[in-house]
Amino acid sequence: MIASLLGAGLLTAAAAQAQERAGNPFVGASSYLNPDYTKDVNFSISKVSDPALKQKMKIVAGYPTFVWLDSINAIYGGARNAGLLGLTAHLNNALAQQKPNTPITVGLVIYDIPGRDCHALASNGELPLTQAGLTRYKQQYIDVIAGILANPKYKNIRIVNVIEPDSLPNLVTNLSTPRCAQAQSTGIYEEGIKYAVDKLHAIPNTYNYLDIAHSGWLGWNNNMTAAISLYTQVFQSTAAGLASVDGFVTNTANVTPLTEPNLPNPDLTVGGQPIKSSRFYQWNPNFDESHYAEALYNGFVAAGWRNSIGFIIDTSRNGWGGHNRPTSASGNDIDTYVNSGRSDRRDHRGNWCNQSATGIGMPPTAAPGGHLHAYAFVKQPGVSDGSSKFIKNNQGKGFDRMCDPTYTTPDGVLSGALPNAPISGAWFHDQFVMLVNNAYPAIGSAASISESEQAQK
User: Fold this and answer.
1) Annotated binding site
2) Number of structural domains, the chain?
3) What is the pLDDT of residues 1-44, one digit of tens each?
4) What are phi and psi of 22, to 5 degrees?
5) What does the pLDDT average to over 388-413?
């Protein structure tokens, strides 16, 4: 399938009938350019002097990114949310950006589940893991969002919702963490997410995509099987059953590569051992997000999900370019071979916070092939994952040692985090400079820019 970059907005009969539900909401539509993100990028442009770097940053400013509704205040925006736009303002801006007779897609991240981020500390939310917290989540967060989205004024906007990153994946693998065990035993995660999906699915122009972690988390066969079983069980009991879900999102805010071109076959043997048994992959057969998404698609369809489900891959920070990007793999033992060839330069696939050497990945693209609905910038490249040390704040965000560059993890490696990072959700200029410089494909190259992409700017 020939990929069409988001924002191409080619006029077709299907696109003109914006009220009709699309099989893939990104096809035939332009995508929303978030003014808050443009403002952050412009700040970084003002801080650098290299003309070539400035030009690359200007290109990135023209990429669509998702809007994170990570608190009740984020719905309203303004002074109580660091001066950022609220949901209504974003939707009104989308209407202003919309081209005649062409749908526009707005991406939202629904991210305020009670007891959020149960296995980490950097992105803890405002709502406690209690029934009172769940009630607030339903009434003051989801109901308010749904009420805004249901306004007929916005009926021609295709609204893509990414539902509660990390929540259900934590119930698959992290029940040894007390807060995650509590999230499961109380049923709060499942009830909250089902409520969100039901309320949002009832709005005809919304599309629900469930976060499903990344290949370095759920890529092992046993983890994937458990995840498919859990998701099937949970969403069969929603009002519309499995039809309430349009697809899944992998790699949300993570850096796992789209492909590992030098390591295409996990069963390749080197020194008599399959390379998937290397120290880096630890018998996980899914080295990258493309293979992971395909394996998930097959597993979900086999479990009774619709053939039409699609996948979004977050490519905002998984480019791994720059001078150190390998072009081949070599060596007589599996670890040497894998380490020489992998584009993922982390010391461990579990390292997640503000990772060094990362770069912007493939630009937002509709229908890039297979069962993929889009490559998208779900995470806004340049936004921090968490602070390098504790920073007092009024957002309930703690300090996670995985964001400390001096921290040695339980796996015996350094965290790989960048120094001098602000709290999660804040702009991190130094990281943005790195991401632009290490982009793959390089920003401004033929692979990252097209006439249709330029037309959106």
Assistant:
1) 68, 70, 214, 217, 254, 352, 379
2) 1
3) 334 445 433 333 333 344 589 999 999 999 999 999 999 999 99
4) -90, 145
5) 92
**Cβ(21)–Cβ(35) below 8 Å:** no
3-state DSSP of 295-319: HHHHHHHHCCCCCCCEEEEECCCCC
Q: What is the pTM of this model?
A: 0.94
Q: Are the C-beta atoms of 378 and 162 separated by less than 8 Å?
A: yes
Total length of the chain: 457
Q: What CATH number should be reported for the domain holding residue 405?
A: 3.20.20.40
Which of 166, 198, 314, 400 is flagged as catalytic?
166
Residues 170 and 189: their CA atoms lie apart, in Å, by 10
What residues have CB less than 8 Å from 368, skipping those under 6 apart? 1, 3, 362, 374, 375
Local confidence band at 398 (pLDDT 50, 70, 90 cut-offs): confident
Look up residue 442 and give its DSSP letter: P
- Single out the catalytic residue among 117, 385, 400, 404: 385
Stated as kind and residue range, the H or E segment containing 173 is: helix 167-173
Hey, what are 261's tokens? Answer: 């071109």
Burial of 452 (0-12, 13-18, 19+ CB in 10 A): middle
Handedness of CA 254, 416, 326, 62 (dihedral sign): positive
For the annotated binding site for substrate, the residues are: 68, 70, 214, 217, 254, 352, 379
| Domain range for 289 | 4-456
Following DSSP, what letter does each residue of 248-298 receive, concatenated? EEESTT----S--TT---TT-EETTEEGGGSTTTTT-S--SHHHHHHHHHH
Q: Which residues of 13-27 are buried (b: 16+ CB within 10 A; e: fewer)?
A: eebeebeeebebbbb
User: Sign of the C-alpha dihedral, residues 271, 274, 280, 282?
Assistant: negative
The CA radius of gyration of the chain, in Å to the nearest whole number, is: 21
Start-to-end C-alpha separation, the chain: 25
Tokens representing 184?
Answer: 């499961």
DSSP string of 361-381? Answer: -SPPEEEEETTEEEEEB-S-T
**Does 385 qualify as catalytic in the annotation?**
yes
H or E segment and range at residue 224: helix 221-236
User: Is 347 among the catalytic positions?
Assistant: no
Contact 310, 24 (CB under 8 A): yes
Region of 390 on the Ramachandran plot (φ > 0 left; ψ -120 to 50 alpha; else beta): beta
CA-nearest of 211, 243, 202, 250 to 230 is 211
